[in-house]
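If your schedule permits, I should be very grateful for your opinion on a structural question. What I wish to show you is a protein chain and, alongside it, a tokenised description of its three-dimensional fold. Would you kindly read the sequence against the tokens and tell me how you understand this chain to fold? Here, with my thanks, is the record as I have it:

===
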Amino acid sequence: MIEQPRAGDDSSEELLRRALLDSEASAAVAMRVEGLALCEELTVIFHGRRDLSTIQTYVALGAHGSGDAVSGEELLRVPCDLDLAEASDRDEAERLYRHQACALRDALVAADTVLAVWREPLAEMTAALIEVDRGVLAAIDAPAPRLIPVALRAAECRLSVVAVCTARTLAEGRPPLGSRASSRRSATSIR
């Protein structure tokens, strides 16, 4: 038996697919974040649809520009959405966008920096090789959404460390960040 999706029960992948097919009802803006220690370069994609009321945020590894095709498998949904509802005109909306996009950029840089700083001490503490796992589809046990598609891993210890964030609109400022370390024995949040 094949289950049909119900109205209002769409997955984020289905919403993205519909948005890409129905370009008349959506708009996307990309912002590059370069010079990162572990990610090297990220592209933030702010995607808005008339029927969603917010502008959703996605992050992809690498540099993507106008007209580039980015598959759903390359996108990490970051639940830190733009909120331009308080704008009284286009100029105010642009100011709010710049302010909120800068807050997200600062959070991405901070998360990448924290993981880069932790890489060497983790290797010393575990006496294990710490690998940098870059990818959206990595299976990560985290109590909050991931902020960047990167994890530190020590395979022999079954240790993973990821940057996580709190879901909120960017109108509230830079999202609270933390890191999540999990192993076969325990899981620890670091804030």
Observations:
- The longest strand covers residues 26-34.
